[in-house]
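Lab manual, section 2.4: Encoding a predicted structure.

Procedure: take the sequence of the chain (126 residues), apply the prediction step described in section 2.3, and record the output as structure tokens. A sample record is shown.
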Amino acid sequence: MEEKERYGFIMCVCTGKCPGFQAMDIWDFINQVRVELPVEYGFIHPQLCEEDGDRFLADFLKANRKVIIGACAPNMQKKMFKQAFTDAGLDVEKDSVMLDIRDMSNEKAFEVVKEALKELGYEEEL
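Recorded output:
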């Protein structure tokens, strides 16, 4: 049986000072995601919507990586990151999953990511 390509998980924390992440221990959360869920990797970026975030995505997406981004409102993420995906030859709708994990505890945000992975077909690995 061929192994399924795994998504990467990027967490954007809006500089780490956004009130939307106060209920969460971001370090425990990212470690739980990368260790316990079937993702290729997990890491935190301080602010993907800034210029350095644009440069990061431009470089990072060159490898045609599929990603799950946990951050703010998905519709805002898609607007902000659409060009980076297009420039990399990817489709923001097909090659990414955007999740809003603000105002959640670690446990709730973890369940949101887990459910997204189930919907992507990783149920057997969860």
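Check your result against the sample. The chain is about 40% helix and 15% strand.
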